[in-house]
Amino acid sequence: MLRRRTLLAGSTGLLAAPALVTGASAQAQWSPNRPITLVVPWGAGGGTDATARFVGAALEKELSQPVNVVNRTGGSGVVGHSAIATAPADGYTIGMITVEIGMMHWQGLTELKGTSYTPLALMNSDPPGVQVKSDSPHQTLKALADAIKANPGRMTASGTGQGGIWHLALAGWLQAMQLPPDAVRWVPSNGAAPAMQDLAAGGVDIVTCSVPEARAMIEANRAKSLAIMAPERNPQFANVPTLKEELGIDYTLAAWRGIAGPRNLPQPVVARYVPLLQKIWNSDDFKTFMNSRGFGMTWRDPAGFASYMAEDDAKMGVVMKAVGLAKS
Amino acid sequence: MGAVGQAFGLILDVNVLLTILGSAIFGILVGAIPGLTATMATALLVPVTFFMPPVPALAAIVTATAMAIFAGDIPSTLLRMPGTPASAAYTDEAFAMTRKGQAELALGVNVIYSAVGGLFGTVVLMVAAPVLADLALGFSSFEYFWLACLGLTCGVFIASLTPLAAMVSLLLGLLVATVGFDAISGYPRFTFGVTDLMSGVSFIPAMIGLFAVSEVLRGMADPDNAATMPQQRIGNIFKGLGAITRRYWPNILRGNAIGTVVGALPGAGADIAAWVAYAVSKKFSKEPEKFGTGHVEGIIDATSANNSSLGAAWIPALVFGIPGDSITAIVIGVLYMKGMNPGPTVFIQNPQLIYAVFMAFIVANILMVPLGLAAIRGATYILRVPRRVLLPIILLFCMVGSFAITSSVYGIIIMLAAGVVGWIMEENGIPVAPAILGLVLGELLEQTFMTSMIKAEGNLLAFFDRPLSVVLGVLTILVWLFAGLNAIRTLIRSRKEAAAAG
What we know:
The structure holds two protein chains of two kinds. Chain A is an alpha/beta fold. Chain A has helices spanning 2-22, 47-63, 78-85, 141-150, 165-176, 192-200, 211-219, 243-247, 267-282, 284-293, 302-323, and strands spanning 36-40, 67-71, 93-98, 117-126, 129-133, 155-158, 184-186, 206-207, 223-228, 255-262, 297-300. Chain A is 42% helix and 18% strand. In chain A, strands 2-1-3-10-4-11 form a six-stranded mixed sheet. The model of chain B has no long low-confidence stretch (mean pLDDT 86). The A-B interface holds A 43-46, 49-50, 70-76, 78-79, 82, 107, 156, 158, 161-163, 185-190, 193-194, 196-198, 200-204, 216-217, 219-220, 222 and B 137-143, 180-181, 183-186, 195-196, 198-200, 336-341, 343-345, 348-349, 407-408, 447, 450-451, 454-455, 466.
C-alpha cells in the first residue's frame, strides 16, 4: 500500500514536470484540470459537513473546477479519515479532518494519526463548555465543582459517545481537579443535541459539549453555560467565563477541524491550496458563516497545524490513559 | 411570529413552488400506476432530495405522498385495481359505482374529500405537534424507552392483521438494527471486519430495497399484468357533491378523526386508516346492506381517512423521531440528512423549517383539486405505460438513491439484499413494515435502555420513577396485557373450533 502511494506520488511529479517547463509564470503553479473531491468523515447536515461545504464552494470558485463534497461516514469517523489518508497524493482528493484523528489510534480503532496526512490549514476550533439545566441547584462552576467533590459518583454527564471528545473534556477537567475520572458518571449519547435535550429533561446533570452546540437550549432558556475550557472567553458568548477564571485550573481542550490531504502531497499542490484556504478563511463570507453558527475561528498554516496536531495528540493520550480508554 | 414569516418566505420561493408542482405530477403518476405505492414515491424521491435544501426536499415528499394516496383511487375506481394499498379498502365499492354508471361521482368524492382529509390532518399536525414538542422536552431516556416499546407494540398488534407474522418481521428488523458499533460502548457487532458495516445497515437503502425493489421483483415475476382501460367518458365529477356533503358531513368528520388517530399511531399508515374507517362506517351506517353494492357512504369515510392520516403520521416523526407510518420512516432519514434531527429540539432550532413543512401540506392539498381533475381526465394515458418500461426505470432510481445516501457501492448492496429479503417475506405472507419499524426503532430502544440503566446504576424500578415515565410505562404494560389476553382468546376459540370440527 505504501509503495503504491509513493509510486503514484512520483508519477504525479512526472506529469507535473511539463507544466513546469511550459507554464507561463516563472513559478511552478499546480492547477487542477478535473474535479476535486473533498471528503468529510461525518454526516451531511452536521457542523463539519456545513463547514466543509462552505470551504468546498469557495475553493470551487477559486480553482474553477468542481469540488465535490463527499460524506464518507461510519465507524466513528474511521471510514472517512482513512479514505482521505489512502487517496492518491495528487491534490485531487483532500478532506476535512477532525480532532478524532488524535484520539482514534489511542483506542486502537485505526493506525491513522495526524502524521498520516499533509496538513494544509486548521480552520476552526471549539472549546468544550460546562452546561447545566437552567434551574439547576448549581448556578456557578464553583458550586458545581464543590458538589462533585462532596459526592463523587452521584452526578451524571453526557455530550457524546463513550470516549468521544466531550467525554475527554469531562475526564480532563476532573483530572485537573485531582478527582478520579468516575467522580461524574458518563452517560453516552448520540451527539450533543440529544444530550442537551436529556439535560433539559432532567435526565443528566451536566453536558460538556461546546457552547455553540448548546446554544439553542440556552437561548430557549432551558440550559445555562457555566464556563468554557479555553484560554480566553469567546466573544460570541462573552458572559461565559473560562475554567481558569472560575476555578484557577488551567485546563483547555478543543474540537478542531482542518483541511488536509494524503501524506506526501507534492509541494506545488500545497503551495496552491494554502494561500487559497487562507484567503477563504479571511473572507467576510466565511466570518459571517462561522459567526452565524457560533463556530470559533482558528487559523494555523501547514507547519502550525502539524505541531498543533502533535501537541493535541499527546494531550489526548495522557487523558485517555488516565481514564482507561486507551488500549495499551 | 418571526418563524412563521420566515416560513412564508421559504415556501413562496419560485424554486420551491416549482418543486411542489413537479412532485405533485410525479406523485399522481406513481399513485395512479397500480403496484407503485406512496412509500415508493418517497423512496424514489430520496436521491433527488439529496441535492436540495431542506424545505423543497420535504415539500416534495409531502406533496408527492398526498397526491399518490389520492391518485391511487383512480385505477381503483375505473379498473378495480388499487393504485396504492391505501385505496384497497374501498376498491370494490368504488368499482361497483363505476359499473352502475356513477364513476364521475366516485371520482369526485375521492378528489374532494381526499383534499379535505389532507387539510384536516395538517391542521391537527399544526396544532398538536408544537404542544407535544413542548411536552417532549421533558422526556428523558426513561420516557423514550417506553415510547419505543409502545411504537413497536403498535406496529405488531394494531397495524397488522397477523400479529405472529408481524412479530417475526419485527424481530428480524431488531436483529439487523444491532449490526454495527454498539451505541454505548462503541464495540463493533456483526461487522465481520467489514469497515462499511461498522456504521450499521443504513436504513434508507434498506427501506428502498424492502419497499421498491421487492415490488420490482414481483412485477418481473408476473410481467403480463397490463391494465386495460374501459372506454368510458368522464363527465362532470363535481355534480351532486353538494348534496352528498350536506347528507354525509358526520361521515367526513368521522373519517378524518379516525385517519388522524391511526396516522399518529406509530407504524400504522394510510392503508390501515382506510380499512378501519370503512369498517366503522359500515358498522354505524343506517343502511349497511347497501355497502358493497356501489354505495358512496363508506368511500367518503375511507378516502377522507387515508389522506388525513398522512399529516398526522408526521406528528410522532417530528416530535419523537418515531415514524407514524412507512413514509415518515423514510422522512426521518431525510431529516437527519438535512441536519434537522427529529425531536423536540427541532422546534426550537429550526421552527421556520417546521412551519414551512406545514405550509407545504396546505399548498399540496389545495393543489390536489385542479391536478386531480386533470389526472382523472388523463387517466387513460397514465394507465397505459407498460410495466416492462417502468420497472427498469424504478430500479435505476433505487440504485442512484442508495448510492447517494452512502456515497459507495455499499448502499446498493444493502438495497439489493433488502429487496430480495423483502420479496421473499411478502411472498410468504410476512409484512415488511414491522421490520422497518424494528430497524428504525432498534437503536433508540437499545440506547435508551442502556443509558437509563447507566443513570440508575442498574435499578430497573427507575423506569417507574419519573411521573411521565410512570404514565407511559403503565400504558405500555396495559397494551401488552390486552394484546396478550386477546391472543390467548383467539387461540382458545380456534382450538374449540378445531375440536368441534374434528
